[in-house]
Amino acid sequence: MQLSEAPAIILSPYDRSQGFLPDLELEKDCACSSPYTHTATWVKPSAHKVQHYQAPPLIQQHLPAAWTLLCNPVAHHSLAVVSPPVLDLLAAFDHPRTLDDGVHYAGAPPHGPTTARRLVELGLLTIPGTLPAPPPKDTTLTAWLHVTNACNLRCTYCYVNKSTDHMSAATGRQAIDAVLRAARANHFTRVKLKYAGGEATLNFARVLELHAYARHEAARHGLALDGVVLSNGVAWNRRMIDALQTHDLRLMISLDGIGPVHDRQRPFTGGQGSFTHVVRSLDRLAQAGVTPTISVTLTDHNLATLPETIAFILQRELPFSLNFYRANDCASSSDTLALHDAQVIAALRAAFAVIEANLPPFSLLECLADLAQLDALHDRPCGAGHNYLVIDHAGQVSRCHMELDHPIADITANDPLLTLRTHPTGWRNDPVSEKTGCQTCTWRYWCAGGCPLLTYRTTGRWDVQSPYCHIYQAIFPEILRLEGLRLLQYGLPHTGLT
Questions:
Q1: CB count, 10 Å around CB of 407?
Q2: At what angle do helices 238-246 and 204-220 cross, to 10 degrees?
């Protein structure tokens, strides 16, 4: 069958029934994003007499073999790859028409009414003058538990002042009680705990003990619970991996390059490299059937080898996320680590070429740009001060894990999250609609203005766009294209095309 003769086909990463989005949750060391603000207004199928037109702004990108990628960047879950009959149908709505009129005007393409309704559901067709639907209430409270201040590495960009201090069992239980208390007080139904440090495996028995306690207490209060261990990956043995699986914990491991590139950024305390130790752990995890998320932190020192790093990760079929370096007082050489727009864009494009040649089965919409989510619109780049809190080894509570030394509350507070939300001083996590340089940007609900703490430390303001704004604007269209190609590769077996 020639594509020109093909039926109306829509491939979307949000169609789980077609296998485009595997059931995995990408882990990141940063705070979860806040709830999205803009969604497509869903119209019931019976409302076929209501006039619709092409949603502004509507992005169209040509893909191979006459396929087209469509995206409305101010509508939630609004991305699809479509065949020519669908594009013809969409063109019929260049000005407002009822769905029935549009289908008739387009020459009644195959499954026209059904296809038109799908375009409405995806936010590609909308009703003139319709306001976006209100956001759903966020249901998850995420908490970073700093179970140890000790670490066996000395990463060049780390923001933690190291010590040998560990979180005690008593403090850990109080911390979990405080998190669950805050979840109930603020009507969250799900809690996610990130066990971190330092290096969490240096207090791993405490992690297991605390997560067992958290599971019991969460169940007692009717709260869903998730847990993830954030690790440098150098010391995972089979006993620890078995315990990870027994306690239903996920894992994120940091990997910044291959061989000496990783070793330069993430050496042991004695100066020797850690890369071979991480690879040994990855081999053991693979043998046990555990799939960690790989976290790659980009600095000026490892940009040039990013394509090789990505190739290594894809060869192992591991989900990953790319994070941009954030200046901090503890970094060993902040000036030389700093990123520069042109070099970052060039390195990302080279890495994207590697991805295009080795397209993974999982979505690329959340992993390729620091703090940006192209699959779930959000008005704040992270949950700091809103649905995220950080508890250090001593029970002090902060907005962000990069502000461990600036606590605002402690675990004895009745509602530590409320204290963070209402604290009057320090940097703010403002919505993107209030940031200078962001209000009219096409991509504003994907990056939400970037990391507010980075912006504050770089510019002295929290109400302006990210220092990485130009990087975001350059690469977002290319990420869309990669996702479109991925949908074609993994979606076509489900369409019946030959």
A1: 18
A2: 10
Residue 435 forms beta bridges with which residues?
Answer: none
Distance CA 485, CA 221 (A): 44
Q: Residue 407: which region, alpha, beta or left (left: phi > 0; alpha: psi -120 to 50)? A: beta
Q: Which residue has the tokens 């996610």?
A: 192
Residue 102 Cα to chain centre, angstroms: 37
**458 has a pLDDT exceeding 90:** no
Q: Which residues contact 224 (CB under 8 A, 6 or more apart)?
A: 189, 190, 191, 218
Rounded to whole angstroms, how far apart are CA atoms 230 and 193?
10
Task: Label residues 337-351 b or e (16+ Cβ within 10 Å = b).
Answer: bebeeeebbebbebb
d(CA 456, CA 446): 20
Q: Whose structure tokens read 């269209």?
A: 477
Chain Cα centroid distance, residue 128: 31
Question: In whole angstroms, what is the distance from residue 257 CA to residue 142 CA?
Answer: 29
Place of tokens 């603000």: 37
Least confident segment among 15-29, 304-318, 324-338, 464-478: 15-29
Reading phi first (left if > 0) and then psi (alpha if -120 to 50, else beta), residue 496 is in left
- pTM of the model as a whole: 0.90
What is the rounded distance in angstroms from the CA atom of residue 157 to the CA atom of residue 155?
Answer: 6
Per DSSP bridges, beta strands 140-146 and 68-71 are unpaired
Torsion 231-277-364-488 (CA) sign: negative
The tokens for 411 are 């675990």
